[in-house]
Amino acid sequence: MKKPFSKRVLVLFFILSSLSLFAQNEEKRLVFIPNIGVNFSNIEKPIAEFLVSEEKTNKAKIGISYTFGANLKIPVLEGVDFLTGLEYVNYKYSFEDFSIIRESNKDVYSIAMDAHSIEAPFILSKDIYASGFKINAGVQLGYIVSAHSEHTVKSYERDNNGFWTFKDEEELRKDIKGLVKRTKISIPVGFSFELPRLYFSLLYNFGITKFYDDNYSKNVTFKVGYKI
Fold it and tell me: If you average pLDDT over every residue of the chain, what do you get?
């Protein structure tokens, strides 16, 4: 019980410290940055909806999806900004197909998961070069609004010539929102680059709360924003 509590205390301390920093700056110039981006996500293993084989393991692949939202940038110190906002993030978790052969029949299994989350970042951004590069680190809080697992089983049978011929296909899409942890906390670390009107961001997010069981979600997000 001490470990999750200590994580929450650290997160709360970071948020309060960040808020107090920009509250001390009397002349804040808010910059509004709507953005859109690509999300590359990964997780160790799927939620099993049915047991196919104890000998088979599902190797994770990188899932590609999207994110969009808006951020507020607030200068707090010379060369240091505070970023917050609201983002809608789609996570796709993919796994390599695998086959199970039983005599003259073969089943090919495809498994994927899909989750949608509303998230709020609290990030400190510091200049590292005068040319517009910044290093970013902070905390991101989220709430999963939907989650599904998708299973596809393609069945084949061996013909008289020894070739596999397609027989049928079965698809199963199941709501797994009740099986995952709805609240989400992650640590974003990365870099950003700014032009007079454009904002580019590359962040690696590693989860400190479990998505389900002993699985932690990891993702890399590349975003492009327009500064208003």
Answer: 85
Query: What φ, ψ does residue 11 adopt, rounded to 5°?
Result: -65, -45
Q: Which residue has the tokens 């942890």?
A: 181
Whole-number Å distance between alpha carbons of 117 and 95: 21
The dihedrals phi and psi of 62, each to the nearest 5 degrees, come to: -80, 125
- 43, 215 Cβ separation under 8 angstroms: yes
Give the lowest-confidence range in 54-58, 66-70, 96-100, 200-204: 54-58
pLDDT digits (tens, 9 = 90+) for 32-43: 999 999 999 998
Nearest to 184 by CA among 212, 204, 223, 221: 212
Output the six-digit token pair for 48.
């099993």
> What's the pLDDT at 64?
96
pTM above 0.70, yes or no: yes
> What distance in Å separates the CA atoms of residue 64 and residue 221, rounded to the nearest whole number?
10
Give the tokens for residue 88: 């809608």
Q: Outline where DSSP puts E strands in the chain.
A: 31-42, 60-61, 63-77, 80-95, 98-102, 105-127, 133-158, 164-175, 183-194, 198-207, 218-226
Would you call 19 exposed, middle or buried from its count of C-beta atoms within 10 A (0-12, 13-18, 19+)?
middle
Q: What percent of the chain has pLDDT over 90?
A: 55
